[in-house]
Amino acid sequence: MNYKEKSDFSYIKAFTGNSETYHNAQVFEGYGVLCELYIQAKDKQIKQDQVDKFNEFKANFKNFLPEIDRYILGSLRNSEMSLIDTINQAKLSFDIIEIPFENY
After folding, report:
1. Closest Cα partner for 55 from 71, 39, 68, 72?
2. What's the pTM?
């Protein structure tokens, strides 16, 4: 199922601050049980580009795996470098995806 508009999501307003998102859940077969999807909103609005970006990721997420691996390995601290082999052997699981309102 491709998401087409914000009505495919549930609106959530934070109890503190002025954060607001639209939420849905997604299964990426073989990459976790259930992935929480949050699309940041502004004045109860999300952009069609945000939905399109998620649909693109959903359809082609395996193409993003090398980039995700590079990001994970590139963000390790010096004290974590000994974990590279463990990380490379671990199975990636998508738990949360957040699509910002700007600059994605």
Report:
1. 39
2. 0.75
